[in-house]
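Why do we care about 3D structure at all? Because function follows from shape, and shape follows, mostly, from sequence. That is the central idea of this module. The next example makes it concrete: a single protein chain, its amino acid sequence, and then its structure expressed as tokens.
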Amino acid sequence: MSLYKKPITDLKGVGQKRAEQFDKLGVHSVGELVNLYPRAYEDWTSVEKIENLQEGGTYCIRATLGTAVANSAKWGGTVISKATVYDDTGTLPLVWFNNVYISQMLVYGKEYFFFGKLTVDAYGPKMIAPTFADVSKGVGIHPVYKTTAGLSSKTIAGTVEQALALLPEQIGDPIPADIRRKYHLCGLRQALCDIHFPKTHAALEEARRRLVTEELLVLNLGMRGLRGQNRGMSGVQMPVDYSAAFEKLLPFTLTNAQKRAVADCVADIAGGTPMNRLIQGDVGSGKTAVAASLCFTAAKNGFQAAFMAPTEILARQHYETLSKLLQNTDIRVALLTGSLKESEKKQVRASLEAGDLDVVIGTHALITDKTVFHRLGLVVTDEQHRFGVAQRAKLLSKGENPHLMVMSATPIPRTLGLIIFGDLDISIIDELPPSRKPVRTVLRGTADRKKIYAFIKSEIAAGRQAFIVCPLIEEGETAGVASAEEYAAELMLHDFADIPVAVVHGKTKAEEKERIMADFAANQYGLLVATTVIEVGVDVPNASVMVIENAERFGLSQLHQLRGRVGRGQFQSYCILISDVHNAVTAERLRVMCETNDGFRIADEDLKMRGPGDFFGERQHGLPQLAIADFADTKALELSQRIADDILFTYHDLRNDELRLLKAEVDRLFRRGGHNTLN
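And the structure:
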């Protein structure tokens, strides 16, 4: 731990300027440098002869510098350095750009290892900017680090070497020795040396396994600690269970999965600590009914419930649903959104503060300072990944440790969910109401577009509605990708000239988007052309067709979310994926979509194929940044989970003296992620 207190400027060759360069990589101390793991490795253990090199391959060769390095300046100031090397099978030109020091670093007639990619142009084969090393040092697996301006990977490697030399022989290890032995994990000192400068592939794998497991273990224990802190608080008690009375109000029967979720929540709110529960279920699985049941029980126990949705249209839909369900009861329900007239907002807020309202449904208007509750006991948030942790906390702060229910229709693989939502208990609604018909999904090529349009028209003629989704276009992209606006204009002019068509995309202003979506929900448009802005927060039971253009550009979880926009009414619904891309990975991804409607299977497949990015978007999950572990590594996630269980079973508490180094790692990771130190 003392190496974290040792500034990086203590190392030879690291002055103020170099320290500023390391600062851009998030490295300020020797300890942080030791934890700056390589992003890749160059394998110099397999040496190839020049005559065997093939275009496009990356190779390590052992060759002699046959010409002195010659520098020449090109128009525009570019300096080109050239040399030729040879072995007993042939010669090979080498080229570097803007590296004037190469001529001082390589000696004519001396033998080196060179590592690089073989390229072939009109002048023949060559290696562009190969890395190199003296033959006495070159053999092995070389680390490649993330770099920044003025700081090369080679310079970082030399500085890391110095830092590792400062590690004591008997380094304190955060993972207790008995746990390391049980799970076959190498010691920390060995892992740190071998992750930077492994002598063999086996040593590298052993080091990686140890460090990945430790990082996920630290994250796992930290998330459990956050949950433990919540449990340490005293929450409002709602001892009387009104869920059976609520069920009698419903025009349908709850599924067994819904009943289990309600029972989990009722058990939570009856206790003396605040509930923190995630209700996870596919689109249409009936999460809103579970939330309504809990709002009913909270109100009957004398508390107020706040239900926050990410968009006005979704808030309004929830308001209409709950108002209808509770219309013949004494529960008073209100809507609070930004678009209400100021006088209406004032009236709702006054009624809330006076205790004349039991349930309020709204958007961010709920968390403004003007909104004051009389006795807030329950907070429900929909589509939790759309809200930051701070927004959730602000709403919770409006009561005395109220209970929290978080709803998400984004299926997260179970193993990943245990980490991401480690501060929440999880209830999964894994069955759909019997009235829901599975959406039929098919894959078609662009040649079938006219047939698809004819099918959409027949559905609209029967009174239904349809979506066509285009992918977002990155800057500079045009070829083969449909822009939502141009696409809609084309449809309005030709194939759908006689049908009202609307368009929404990322640049549509929020108020305009809300208006268009509301009009579409009211069946004023037969067809809506959109980008993924419609992925969440639209409930149009009358829509029966979802067409997704360039389907290969979407992840499975995103495709599943988009498909969930249809199939919400009593009509058979269809999802048509359009793609002409037929590479193996894309074909497999789209085949999974056509085979299953099970969001959790899709989430598992997506994690395997694409990693966790789809579940998080731009770091929306609020977890600390990881240095080496990968959320897509389900085996490592499961192992860290088992070890965390074992440690807490054996040592009971992270404050146990034998776990002080492990607790220090937990505190350090969570401080880096912006969380307070765990108690």
